[in-house]
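ESCALATION

Customer reports they have been waiting on this structure for their group meeting. Please prioritize. Original submission:
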Amino acid sequence: MRKILEVITALACLLTGLGLAACAPEPAEQPAAEVPAAKIPVTSASQEAVRLYLEGRDLAEKLRAADARELFEQAVAEDDGFAVAHLGMANTSPTASDFFESLARAVAAVEGASDGEKWMIMAAQAGADGDPDAQKEHLARLVEAYPSDERAHNLLGNWHFGRQEFDQAIEHFSKAIDIEARFSPPYNSLGYAQRTVENYEAAEDAFRSYIEVLPEEPNPYDSYAELLMKTGRYQESIENYQKALSKDSSFVASYVGIGNNHIFLGQPEEARAAFAKLDEVARNDGQRRQSLFWTAVSHLHEGAADQALEALEARYQIAAATDDKATLSGDLNLMGNVLLHHGDHEAAAAKYAESVSMIEQADVSEDVKGGTRRNHLFNEARVALHRDDLDDAAAKLDEYRTAVEERQIPFEVRQVHELAGMLALHREQGDDALAELAKANQQNPLVLYLQARACQHQGDEDGMKEFATKVVDFNGLNLNLAYVKAKAEEMLAGGA
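Update from on-call: job pushed to the front of the queue and completed.
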């Protein structure tokens, strides 16, 4: 599994927090043996806090977030002004509210940090605020100041990956490996980047190298298993997920992977058994919510929306117990999507409206609330399409496009094109639909399915088969696949 150490735009549309407070204690110089001068400094008033942080960072980079978080907590207990330790807590948070609380503390302590640490923290804040240009500026300054730091290149590579600029991402991941061949995260990220551009042989090489670097850790086997799943080698994939669990039986990502393999093998009950095991080993609310999310996805693959909504309601109640309104807003939006895809557009509209109301009550920044309001325009336009009210859909599209143009967040820009393509399809304008959808997110199976439909409308059977096959063979950890895989299979079988 790959965890990008930045806040993805989809999350930034819903959640963020900003806190500015008193400066941290004066930083102490760190021993050169722990942090070489050519690397980003780690600054704290406590040497014990530094030791704990470095141990936690090592675990976080191995994707052992729960274990890493415990060490970051100990580090900030030693030095509450330890800015990057608070950032470490943010990046290993099990819930949205925990994330933003920790990020705010990192920002509050930033004056006690080195320039390199400041750029890391402010890049994370910019990501949370949905400001990718500012995020890149901070990360570019980080790489310029520390060109021999593998972590700097890995972070900038992650930024490019998030924008689907895969060539640049591969360049920075490869540079990080050249700097330090034993630094594990870029092997993982490089494998995913190569997989995404369908360089499967190069992806396999990267993941095998990742295993060689960390043979006793679970995540390398987990990531390789995900590649095997992607290429339809389901039993081999399950075997490698089981290898990951033999290294750490609480590695929740591998239960997710095993369950999805069973979904693709047409074994939903076995899938849900895997997700139930995830719940058994869960160490926090975030992991328990994961179990319920994937249980819902398994039901959606069967077309069982009611059972999926039951699982999502149970997931919602976990967040409700802590009054995490930002997370609740996202949950309501997700439930709205399920309802919309299963034909109940009025109930979907109600959930979308409730999502906006919930975020307005949340203790998050205006940037996050604005992102949710923009996304609501996208949702309202889709509801209008389901009502066959094309004039209202067009008006909402125009409103959404104008709002998105002000921020130019890539995720939202792609959604504008997706929505425009959907409207063109409803107007039976196949060429226009294809032109718009080509600019939408090509890593979204829903977009691929819409492209198949547009080709079908144009009488382009080869194009229809190409895009429908991409949906059927998508084999990824993606909720939207559950909405369209069966439809694409039916299309290929000549039934749609």
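Sent to customer with the following note: The first helix runs from residue 9 to 12.
Escalation resolved.
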